[in-house]
Amino acid sequence: MRTARAQSILWGVVGVLGVAALWELYKAVAPDEGVTVGSITVLPRTTDIAMPHIWDMVTRLFDPVTRAADADVLWWAVLQAAAFSLGIAALGWVLGVISGMLLALLMQRWLTAESAVLPWVVLSQTVPLIAIAPLVKRWGTNIHVGSFQWENWMSVAVIASYLAFFPVAVSALRGLKSPPQADTDLFHAYAAGWWTTLIRLRLPASVPYLMPALKLAAANAVVGTVVAEVSIGLGGGIGRMIIEFAATASGDPAKTWAPIFGAVLIGLLSAGLVALLGRGLGRFRRGEVPA
Amino acid sequence: MSATRAAVTIQGVDKVFRTRKGGEVHALSDVSLEVAAGEFVSLIGPSGCGKSTLMRLVADLDPATGGEITVFGKTVEQARKDQDYGIAFQQAGLLPWRTVRANIELPLEIHGVDARARKERSDELLALIGLEDFADHHPDQLSGGMKQRVAIARSMAERPRLLLMDEPFGALDEMTREHMQNELVALCQETGAAVIFVTHSIPEAVFLSDRVVVMSPRPGRITDIIDLSFSSRDEDLREDAAFYKGVTAVRSALHGGADASPGPRGVENR
Ligand SMILES: Nc1ncnc2c1ncn2[C@@H]1O[C@H](COP(=O)(O)OP(=O)(O)OP(=O)(O)O)[C@@H](O)[C@H]1O
Ligand SMILES: [Mg+2]
After folding, report:
1. Inside any domain, residue B154
2. Which among B52, B200, B221 is the best mutation to test ligand 1's pocket, defined by most ligand atoms within 8 Å of the CB?
3. Of B53, B75, B193, B264, which is least surrounded by CB within 10 A?
4. The domain defined by A53-284 carries CATH number 1.25.40.20
5. Range with the lowest mean pLDDT among A80-89, A122-131, A267-276?
6. What's the structural domain count of chain B?
7. What is the pLDDT of residues A80-115, one digit of tens each?
8. Could you give the 3-state DSSP secondary structure of residue B25?
9. B51 lines ligand 1 (CB under 6 A)
10. Are residues B71 and B176 in the same domain?
């Protein structure tokens, strides 16, 4: 067990180093202007602006963000932005998981609900994020309840949940329907109602289906948050930071990569958090094929 | 036999399945049978003759198309709601996320029995099936025979007066099977429950049953009922002449459903 864990960590490190090595190797070998066929670039440029050295990216993290006297050191600014985005993504994930579960329960309970709702669930994912962002923002600002004020970060969380609910709804429905007839017959023989059957049979049986969906939902929530920050125009997170730093790319190419590291960090953290949750549900995952 | 003493009465029951393409399958036709309290009755017959269907009707898992079934004088629905029967299927059907003990306690838990009483009962049953040491194991850590024993213990958890068992030993090897049969006999003697037992094995039916009900397919119906009044059921019975006589009787009833030529149809044991 322990050696297997150590081995998988080792391979993870090897993988990261491998990518870094490939990056530097390509940069060293390929021509500066990349490879073009006619006017189409088929292999990217390798200039320091397009592909800064790995060590430049890393050392850049320990310099201040700007030349201003009171500027934070770059890694700290990235970390703060990452924490901000992770918070919103987490909220979006929770909202998405709740609404996905509720939809799945609805569809499991009533067959007509399944045929009425499932097509819309699938269709919802074909609407591009860029299109719904302004809509969510506009609807949100129309909400006035007492002193409640719709904020931009709420729009971002809603959009993140919009991407997160889909895998949960689809997989939870499959999981809730997964118990074989022998099991549902048994519960019927026990004169157990829908609720008892749900709690003692369907929900536990759906955990193996839910785990990958929760991971996917986490990844979706992160991507949704970063993209929605850009399209809503919410500052403070990684999304805006990527755009802002990209504007300085020609003068400070290594800096562009800092928020991307931040985004990767959020992705890893969220996946780790879901994996942690999965360990708590270990006993419901017997017989699950390890992913 | 008075109606109150019967565990199950089945009168003129029909079952027709309507298939999705509009076809009809006549699974049971005019089936009548009475099972006395404490009696062990086996259903035997070729595949597709409606044994499982009949058991599912008694368990109120499917509705009958015609006729009447009562369980301890009640409708099947009432009997199910009153938990008058325990049930075990061919597949053990244990919940993989529950330990052996928790699987046995499942019906008790669903019916709100408190934790102490549950533990008491599961301790009893674990001892009965000889799996005390496996109480905290999960089903994936058990052999097929052990799982089946757990399923049987679960069906007995609420001390039902009626047990419905659909080929519970179907997936077991001959050795384990005979062992389980001995255990089932012992369990039934202890609890005094009536049993409806579906099987494909003639020796199994003969060894376990007070009466063997022989069925034939298309449409499913009862062709013969063979009485076996053995004085005792133990390992010796398997070598006994009376046992072989019973096996022969059931076999000829099974094969000679239409032509009654080979001797008096199984009535010699009556
Ligand atoms: N849900 C169903 N829908 C349609 N037909 C069914 C259904 N269940 C059973 N049947 C049909 O009813 C007949 C009796 O089936 P049943 O399962 O009771 O047979 P069986 O005696 O238990 O057979 P086996 O020994 O193979 O288990 C079969 O012809 C089968 O095709
Ligand atoms: Mg059957």
Report:
1. yes
2. B52
3. B264
4. no
5. A122-131
6. 2
7. 888 999 999 999 999 999 999 999 999 898 888 788
8. strand
9. yes
10. yes
The verdict on a CB contact (< 8 Å) between A189 and B97 is: no
Model confidence over B191-213: pLDDT tens digits?
A: 788 999 999 888 888 888 889 99
> Which DSSP letter does residue A64 get?
B
Burial A230-253 (b: 16+ CB within 10 A, else e): bbbebebbbbbbbeebeeeeeebb
Instruction: Check whether residue B40 and residue B21 sit in a common domain.
Output: yes
Residues B168, B224, single domain; the answer is yes
How much is the average pLDDT of B25-49?
A: 89
Q: Which residue reads 């006035």 in tokens? A: A144
Residue A172 near residue A100, CB atoms below 8 Å: yes
- Burial classification of residue B260, based on how many CB atoms lie within 10 Å of its CB (0-12 exposed, 13-18 middle, 19 or more buried): middle
Q: Please say if the pLDDT value at position A28 is more than 90.
A: no
Best residue in A183, A185, A186, A195 for a mutation probing chain B (most B CBs within 10 Å): A186
Residues 6+ apart with CB under 8 A from B239: none
Residue B103's closest chain A neighbor by CA? A200
Residue nearest to atom 25 of ligand 1 (CA): B47
Q: How far apart are the first and last CA of chain A?
A: 16
Residue B89 lies in a domain: no
From start to end of A35-136, where are the E strands? 35-37, 40-43
The answer on pLDDT for A289 being more than 50 is no
Contacts of B126 (CB under 8 A, 6+ apart): B100, B101, B104, B132, B134, B135, B153
Q: Is B17 in the pocket of ligand 1 (CB under 6 A)?
A: yes
Total-model pTM: 0.82
Q: Which structural domain, as residue segments, surrounds residue B107?
A: 94-159
Domain extents for chain A?
A: 1-51, 53-284
Same domain, B80 and B104: no
Q: Name the least confident of B43-57, B78-92, B203-217, B233-247.
A: B233-247
* Assembly ipTM: 0.85
Chain B residue whose CA is closest to A195: B110
